[in-house]
């Protein structure tokens, strides 16, 4: 023991230097390994998740592509997204889900139904005239005449018919015929004038629904830009 202490004291600097060298070597090896695995994981993330997402975002939005995006976001490699990147992915999925449900014909039909209701009220006619009662006969609310609930579907049929050779004037004429039919048969009104205050095209363009969807699509455009500008996407 005494000889060991004597040896250490006689060559302390050399021993300390050797220990530091060994420790530094170990630390450097660990750092190199960590960097290697990080780079490897990020490269795998790009190939298996990022690039497939990028390709899907370059295609038209659809419910099928939304399911694919969700599946990609749950891939094992997705755990290597950075916190800020993950946040953008989640925001994008939320907005994409909404956009993927967009159906212009049905949305326009809902807008045109709202205009029908608005015009009736403007002419002093309450669209919801059928009483709804509970099991005890107490009045709960009022609803549209049963047949009026089919007006949206009838408008959809008109819009689908006109889709291939879209002509706003022809669509307007066909929709007005529907309006008059429902007015005469279910509200006893045959003198209401439609699209006198706003044209057919203006009704569609100026509606709150249209503005809401315009904002949603603008949000989709912005979040896609954020995604495409991520370093992991650009490199």
UniProtKB/TrEMBL annotation:
Keywords: Membrane, Transmembrane, Transmembrane helix
Keyword Transmembrane part of the UniProt annotation: yes
Transmembrane segments: 12-37
Protein name: Uncharacterized protein
Annotated organism of origin: Ruminococcoides intestinale
């Amino acid at each position: 023991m005494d000889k060991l202490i004597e040896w250490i004291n006689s060559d302390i600097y050399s021993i300390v230097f050797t220990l530091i060298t060994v420790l530094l070597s170990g630390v450097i090896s660990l750092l190199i390994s960590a960097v290697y695995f990080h780079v490897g994981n990020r490269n795998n993330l790009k190939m298996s998740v990022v690039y497939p997402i990028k390709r899907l975002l370059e295609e038209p939005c659809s419910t099928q592509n939304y399911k694919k995006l969700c599946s990609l976001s749950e891939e094992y490699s997705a755990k290597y997204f950075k916190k800020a990147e993950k946040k953008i992915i989640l925001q994008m999925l939320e907005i994409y889900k909404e956009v993927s449900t967009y159906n212009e014909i049905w949305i326009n039909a809902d807008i045109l139904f709202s205009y029908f209701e608005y015009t009736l009220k403007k002419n002093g006619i309450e669209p919801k005239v059928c009483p709804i009662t509970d099991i005890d006969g107490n009045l709960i609310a009022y609803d549209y005449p049963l047949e009026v609930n089919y007006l949206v579907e009838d408008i959809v049929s008109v819009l689908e018919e006109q889709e291939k050779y879209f002509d706003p004037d022809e669509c307007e004429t066909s929709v007005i015929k529907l309006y008059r039919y429902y007015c005469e048969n279910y509200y006893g009104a045959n003198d209401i004038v439609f699209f006198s205050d706003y044209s057919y095209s203006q009704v569609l363009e100026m509606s709150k629904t249209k503005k809401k969807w315009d904002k949603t699509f603008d949000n989709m455009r912005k979040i896609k830009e954020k995604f495409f500008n991520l370093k992991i996407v650009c490199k």
